[in-house]
TrEMBL record:
<keyword id="KW-1133">Transmembrane helix</keyword>
<feature type="domain" description="CARD">
    <location>
        <begin position="38"/>
        <end position="96"/>
    </location>
</feature>
<dbReference type="Pfam" id="PF00619">
    <property type="entry name" value="CARD"/>
</dbReference>
<keyword id="KW-0812">Transmembrane</keyword>
<comment type="subunit">
    <text>Associates with BCL10 by CARD-CARD interaction.</text>
</comment>
<dbReference type="InterPro" id="IPR043574">
    <property type="entry name" value="CARD19"/>
</dbReference>
<dbReference type="GO" id="GO:0042981">
    <property type="term" value="P:regulation of apoptotic process"/>
</dbReference>
<feature type="transmembrane region" description="Helical">
    <location>
        <begin position="120"/>
        <end position="138"/>
    </location>
</feature>
<dbReference type="InterPro" id="IPR042146">
    <property type="entry name" value="CARD_BinCARD"/>
</dbReference>
<keyword id="KW-1015">Disulfide bond</keyword>
<dbReference type="InterPro" id="IPR011029">
    <property type="entry name" value="DEATH-like_dom_sf"/>
</dbReference>
<protein>
    <recommendedName>
        <fullName>Caspase recruitment domain-containing protein 19</fullName>
    </recommendedName>
</protein>
<keyword id="KW-0472">Membrane</keyword>
<dbReference type="GO" id="GO:0031966">
    <property type="term" value="C:mitochondrial membrane"/>
</dbReference>
<keyword id="KW-0256">Endoplasmic reticulum</keyword>
<keyword id="KW-0496">Mitochondrion</keyword>
<dbReference type="GO" id="GO:0005789">
    <property type="term" value="C:endoplasmic reticulum membrane"/>
</dbReference>
Amino acid sequence: QSYCHRLQHDMYFLTSTSRLNEQVVDKIVLQLNRVYPQILTNEEAEKFRNPKASLHTRLSDLLKHLQKKGDRHCQEFYRALQINAEQLFNDLPSRKILKTPDPTEIDTDKKQYLLNDRGPVFFLACFSVAAGLALFWYCCNSETQVIGRARRILGFSPIIIGRHVRNICMLYLEDIPRN
């Protein structure tokens, strides 16, 4: 969307009661008048800062004037609005439309994994339990031929998961060449 179309879409929201106060409108007009490139001339700035006219009328005239000038002028208005009234800028209807995700687009903010917030300790605990159960099933299976002491040691490995796992595996490896 062009900035002119966005401004037309946001016009009602901006001009509705108590959205922008007089100070913020004056700051925006001054910024549009003083910042390079100069969007409003001195005469136009005086017209839009005239305290004799109502705020609603001045703001409506300013927005219509910017739309007539073109997309660059409307873009500078949005920049000034963001600087001087950031909360209002974030609440604009056109910003909400831009923030809504496209259903065909992949949303990278969604959680990728269900257990992502559990941390590495949870993963290691689950992995250890799974590995222990696999070893227990392997040792208790009657088709496998595991020698007596090694079978007993590996049979209890799910219970002894921790720092002793390395020692148990070493005992098993030493026991195999002897038999």
